[in-house]
Design brief:
Elements: H1 2-12, H2 16-40, E1 64-72, E2 83-90, E3 97-102, E4 106-107, H3 110-115, E5 124-130, E6 133-142, E7 145-154, E8 167-175, E9 180-181
Antiparallel strand pairs: 1-2, 2-3, 4-5, 5-6, 6-7, 7-8, 8-9
Length: 182
């Protein structure tokens, strides 16, 4: 404190221009002192704080709920079905995942899904079907990620052989307690 009082006394006796030079020198000297203090006392250095990435939930312990929400009304065109937004709700997360748009859908059990060509042991199975065509969806866990597959199913004509359903990966996400990340 005594040093500060001394600076004030010196500043009062100088001209305005000299006062400005004096203050600049003091500021430069004080900033040099701080740098010296940091190298002499590393405990004063700023600590870099890094956030830890949250861990994805255990999908093997997750139940899935499925809901559809009407997205378009086809009253004007009776030849095309109403479209629905398909949402998946993991029990271990507060978030939901929009799977896509389709003509609706229901969750089905593993036995029926396997008959429809989906693999056994999936986390969930969904079937969407309308007028001889539809989509099948299922989810697998791969490297702590939820991978969702979709396959288009076409009902065979009586004189034709059934076509195999080809499944494509449509989503690969990490499920966290608070969110679902692509």
């Amino acid at each position: 404190m005594m040093l500060g009082f001394g600076y004030i006394v010196v500043v009062k006796s100088l001209s305005m221009k000299n006062t400005l030079y004096f203050l600049i020198i003091i500021l430069l000297a004080s900033s040099c002192k701080n740098e010296t203090d940091r190298t002499e006392n590393p405990a004063n250095d700023e600590v870099e704080v890094t956030a830890q990435k949250p861990t994805p939930v255990d999908l093997s312990q997750t139940d899935f709920d499925f809901k559809t929400f009407e997205a378009s009304n086809s009253d004007a065109d009776l030849t095309s079905p109403t479209k629905y937004a398909l949402y998946l709700y993991p029990s271990t997360s507060r978030d939901s995942l929009k799977i896509g748009m389709d003509v609706g859908g229901i969750m089905i059990d593993e036995e029926k899904a396997v008959v429809l060509g989906m693999p056994a042991g999936a986390l969930f199975y969904i079937r969407s079907y309308y007028a001889g065509t539809g989509n099948n969806y299922y989810g697998l866990e791969e490297n702590r990620r939820l991978i969702i597959y979709k396959g288009n199913v076409v009902e065979p004509h009586p004189e034709a052989e059934p076509e195999p359903t080809i499944y494509e990966k449509i989503h690969s996400v990490e499920v966290f307690a608070d969110s679902i990340a692509q």
